[in-house]
Specification:
It contains four helices and five strands. The chain has helices at about 5-30, 30-50, 50-80, 80-85, and strands at about 110-115, 120-125, 130-135, 145-155, 155-160. A hairpin with a 6-residue loop joins strand 1 and strand 2. Helix 1 (about 5-30) packs antiparallel against helix 2 (about 30-50). The chain starts with 5 loop residues before the first helix and ends with a strand.
Amino acid sequence: MSPEMVPWLAALALLLGILALVLEVFIIGFGIAGVAGIILIAWGIVLFTVDVAITFKSLVIALISSIIVFIFGIKAMSRFNLWQRLTLGKRQFNDEGYRASREELVECTGQEGITLTPLRPSGAAKVGGDRLDVVSEGGFIPAGAKIKVVRVEGIRIVVRACE
């Protein structure tokens, strides 16, 4: 590798590393993109330096310092109750009125109804005299079409067009 190409390669490694970290945080989710991003950033830093031994020593010191700061940060958050200010501390119990599903919706399974709005794939339908929010099993179902309730998953009511 020629000496004049090293700065470009280092800059490319840094940019790709930062891009991988951004993709991980905002799009992909946590996993391999983050590890690749960290490796690319470290490689870019090593390529920019003149003495590799000093660079590795600096990176190790930075990593150890980051871990120590992280540990002290966690201890400070627990000591001053900062974590409770950032998270929801109250559990939601059924006897207090918190329910994710309505038991009577299960009885709708197998019933027929009519769509009140187009389902793309969600919309409203009248089933058993009740107006319900439903989701089509397939694709588009026009308004006024006959439907049948296929299954109920919690508060999600899945329907299919009758043929």
